[in-house]
From TrEMBL:
Naturally occurring in which organism (per UniProt): Mycobacteroides franklinii
Domain of life: Bacteria
GO molecular function, one term: hydrolase activity
Keywords tagged on the record: Hydrolase
Protein name, entry field: 2-succinyl-6-hydroxy-2, 4-cyclohexadiene-1-carboxylate synthase
Domain (AB hydrolase-1) ranges: 26-268
Length: 285
C-alpha cells in the first residue's frame, strides 16, 4: 500500500508518497507540471520488492506550497537537498528523477554539500538539447492550443488535452494510463490554464538553458532515455553521458519522455541495482 503524508523541506510544505521497506531509500523526483503521482507504478513495485522509496511534490507542483518569486532552480536545489538529507540520515539514498527532476538529481549529485547520494538515475534529462518540436514549434503550437481553448467546449478541450499529453509523455501508446495522463492534461481543461502553463514552462526552460555546465558528479550514474522522447533530444542524455565519468547510458527503444511509465520494471531494476551498489545491473529477469 502506498502511504501519504505531509512534510516540510527548506520551509516548503509538501506531500510525499512512500512505501516502507529496507534501505537505502530510493528518492523519486518528478518532472515539470507533474507530481509525486507520476511514480505510483514504481512505488507499487518497490513495495512488492520490500524496498523503501519516497516520491515528493516539488515546490509549486502537486500539493506542495507555491514556489517563491524569483528563480525556481535554487529553490528546487534547497528543497531536494533537505529531502536527501532527511531520507539519507542513516545511509545514502538512490536518487531517481524524470525531466526537470532528472536535472535536479544531477545538480544534487554535483553539490559541494556532499549530499548522501549512493547513485542517480536521471531519465529524459534536459540541459543539452531539445527536440525539434520544442525548439521550433513550442511557441506557435502552444499559443494556438491556448487560443483554441477559449472558444472550444470543455469536453472537446479535455479530449484534445488528453490526446496531446498522452502522446508527449508515453512512447508506447498501448501502455497509456488514462488516469496518469489526466494528472497532467487536467491542468489544461480550464480556460486560460493552457497559457499559464505555457508561460511557466517557457520560464523553466529558459532557466535550465541559462545554467552553467554541471560538473563534479562522481557517484554511480545510469542515464535513461526513451528513443521516442518528443520533448528532450536523445543528444541531451548522450551529452551528459560524455560529461559524467564512468556513467552508463541506456536507450529504451519503445519509451517516451517518461520511461518510468513505459517501462517501470526496468527503472525499478536499475534503481535497486544501485541500492545494492551495482551500477551495471541491466533489465531485471
Amino acid at each position: 500500500m502506498i502511504d501519504e503524508r505531509r512534510a516540510v523541506y527548506a520551509g516548503v510544505g509538501t506531500r510525499e508518497l512512500f512505501v516502507a521497506g529496507e534501505g537505502p531509500a530510493v528518492v523519486l523526483l518528478h518532472g515539470f507540471s507533474h507530481s509525486a503521482d507520476a511514480w505510483r507504478p514504481l512505488l507499487d513495485r518497490f513495495e512488492e520488492a520490500g524496498q523503501a522509496a519516497v516520491a515528493v511534490d516539488l515546490p509549486g507542483f502537486g500539493a506542495a506550497d507555491s514556489a517563491r518569486p524569483g528563480a525556481w532552480l535554487p529553490q528546487g536545489d534547497r528543497f531536494v537537498g533537505e529531502v536527501i538529507a532527511q531520507h539519507g540520515r542513516n545511509t545514502s539514498v538512490v536518487l531517481v528523477g524524470n525531466s526537470l527532476g532528472a536535472y535536479l538529481a544531477l545538480r544534487a549529485a554535483a553539490s559541494p554539500q556532499r549530499l548522501p547520494i549512493r547513485g542517480i538515475v536521471p531519465t529524459g534529462t534536459p540541459g543539452m538539447g531539445w527536440t525539434r518540436l520544442v525548439r521550433v514549434g513550442q511557441l506557435g503550437a502552444a499559443r494556438f492550443f491556448a487560443r483554441a481553448t477559449v472558444c472550444t467546449p470543455r469536453p472537446l478541450r479535455a479530449y484534445l488535452a488528453d490526446a496531446v499529453i498522452g502522446r508527449l509523455i508515453y512512447g508506447n501508446q498501448a501502455s497509456r494510463d488514462k488516469k496518469m495522463v489526466r494528472t497532467l492534461s487536467s491542468q489544461l481543461y480550464g480556460r486560460g490554464d493552457a497559457h499559464k502553463l505555457l508561460v511557466q514552462g517557457l520560464r523553466m526552460k529558459a532557466e535550465v538553458d541559462g545554467e552553467p555546465a554541471i560538473t563534479g558528479i562522481s557517484c554511480p550514474t545510469v542515464l535513461v532515455h526513451g528513443r521516442r522522447d518528443r520533448l528532450v533530444a536523445l543528444a541531451s542524455s548522450q551529452g551528459w553521458h560524455q560529461a559524467i565519468p564512468q556513467s552508463r547510458l541506456v536507450v529504451l527503444d519503445h519509451a517516451g519522455h517518461c520511461p518510468q511509465l513505459d517501462e517501470p520494471d526496468y527503472i525499478v531494476g536499475i534503481s535497486r541495482g544501485l541500492t545494492a551498489g551495482d551500477a551495471d545491473q541491466s533489465r531485471p529477469a
